[in-house]
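Q: Could you write out the predicted structure for this multi-component system? I'm mainly interested in how the pieces pack against one another.
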Amino acid sequence: MLSPKFRKLQECLAGLPGIGKKTAGRLAMHIITQDKAKSHDIAESIADAVDSICNCSVCNILSENDPCLVCTDTDRDNRLLCVVENTQDVHLFEEIHSFKGRYFVLGHLLSPMHGIGPDEIKFGLLSKFLEENPVEEMILALSPSVEGETTMSFIAEQLETSSINLSRLSTGLPFGSNLEYANSITIANAFRNRTKV
Amino acid sequence: MYIKSLSLVNYRNFERFTYTFDQHGCLISGENGSGKSNLLEAIAYSAYGKSVRHHNDSDIVRFGVNHFFFQAGFVNHDEAYSFDIGYENNRKVIKLNGAILSRMSELYKHIKVVYFSPDDISLVNGTPRLRRSFIDTAIANTDWEYLYKLKEYNQILQQRNALLKSDFEEKHKQTWDTNFCTASITIVKKRLEFISKFEKVFNRIYSEITDKEEEITFNYKATLQTNLSQRDLEDFLFTKEQREKEVEHSLFGPHLDELIIKINGKPARDFASQGQKRSIVIALKLAQAELIRLISDEYPILMFDDILSELDNERTRNIIHNISKEHQIFIATPNADHYKDFDLRHLELKNENIDEV
């Protein structure tokens, strides 16, 4: 018979994205049987992260500080704004070291099927951000899915009368890949969005 | 193009089956229940990535086991393609030339099969959904991007339907309406372009196989008038908003459009005889094959699952004469004599074994 505490741990883990019941059972067993100090470390870091990380009240990035370190960084170019879906995307752009502007995190993409509308993508907060910050160019860096495309259209339509230059990421062939292995849709997009050499 | 080899493991009634075909195809005879249709279905599976007889993968597995596997080798313009499919406990992996396929539309690009089934009569008699599905498949045979556009349209439709069920903000709905109209226009334009090409090819084939002066026309009845501008369409949807809110789903769009087949100006569904309906269905599929040939310069594999048996000998002969020898042809029938004009290798299926007759 499994202990009720073990079962509860397993159920909690199974509630995480991408984790099924079997994997949750294996993880729970590992947490229980490994060095106790390591398991306490996991528990404490979860509690600590949950208690101290919150959404930045300016740009919605997940951060320990409010406003976040990006919003308070005076070396950033305030004329550029990159709009992303989530905080992980911010880390991706930061890693490439070629963008020095500000970010805004929507948190979601528009999806009526999941109950996500303009309020859930923090459009009100984005409007406030734009009122307070004189942005010249906004880069919509969202996934090229139906939901991503619709979210980009929605933002573009709402900002139609503003003087902000709107751009989006291009779609096409991944770097270092072989043309032969790209699927037809990617090749068609790459062809359509070809650039001058 | 042609299929060169086929190996089946636990596929329907076949525990193990391997055969090498020539490029002309064959006539497969056998008693009822011997697995003739299953064999044709397996070959067509490789072109569509699913059963052409609308069966679930779990129903394809041989009774008493939980997995099936099959491998098919195709040759197209002297280039070889291998197609592998493995299924076990609701999980399926499809490989084309050893690489796992993430998009079924890639199959449409390489493997072309036109399957004639006895159920095809419902293309004339059945619901509009069947005719829409026929046009969509026929377009996708030569325009692989179309499937992607259709999938995109269906995703937008689902989202819009969910929105109509909710307490939405007007500006939010406007964005979905804009995308919905753009996607609808793309789908309807492609369908109309296709139908105009298709109608000519169809009528030529229909008159050749029937020897009659009947005029068949295809009327595409769109629920959204796509000759209007994008703006006018959006305005139209706005005027219907209250009604759509009440019923909580989209009342317009290519998912509801109808293709009306008319014979001498009257709906074939109500006015064509059984014989005329059968000829229309066969001409529909032959025209589908002919358009593949005209557009992509490939002769698709033709598969007749006992569909010609109900036609008289003269009409069968006309059909046989209409089909180019360049096609690889498979015919499944319990009555081999009816097809002697085809001049194909005759194989007999008995107890999962195939023997040359």
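A: Regarding packing and overall arrangement: The mean pLDDT of chain B is 90.
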